[in-house]
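Narrative of activities, Objective 1.

The group set out to show that a structural description can be obtained from nothing but a protein's sequence at a throughput compatible with the screening campaign. Below is one input-output pair from the validation batch, recorded exactly as produced.
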Amino acid sequence: MIRDSFESLKVSPKEMDLLWSLGFRHFGTYFFRYDTRCYNNKTVQVLPLRINLKRFRPSASQKRILRRNRDLQVVFRNAFIDEEKIRLFEIHKRRFTENIPEDLFNFISPMPSIIPCRTLECSLFHEDKLIAVGFMDIGDDSTSAVYTIYDTGYYRRSLGIYIILSEIHYSIEAGFNYLYHGYAYREDSYYEYKKNFIGLEYYDWRGEWKPMMK
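Output recorded for this entry:
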């Protein structure tokens, strides 16, 4: 059983690459990894995931999501927290019926652009209204999607997927090789959408990343 965690205020880009490659994630200054979890009263195997950006291409359904959101303004900038994002988080968390997140700062540090590493935000605007924000860490060779919030009134737009697709595009254009986009389970779960990307790889907990075959 793997259960590792530590706290750090400052991690270099190369160190972030190494941690992600070993299956670590972080919320704020808290870094963690674990290979199993209890889900629906069963023990399930955790799968750290990443997208090999050299192999990625959008699927037919992802192309439809891209077309559906062509009217949105996409802005990448240094991450920061303000009242508008806190308001958006309060709307976002209404979608949860259990394990309801309490506070945006459970996931993001008060100074996310520099603590614990450089973090950008992918902000989506509809007619000048902020409707979604994805927070993305920047490493040396890789990027990592940390957390996404969105206005549930726009659920037909699949904004969570659109944020990931926007982060993928940014990462490819900037010359990165991998985008780490979180954990899923080997068993079917709420996180199945994370498995639906061409170029997907998973960490086998023995030190190897392998292509994810569906």
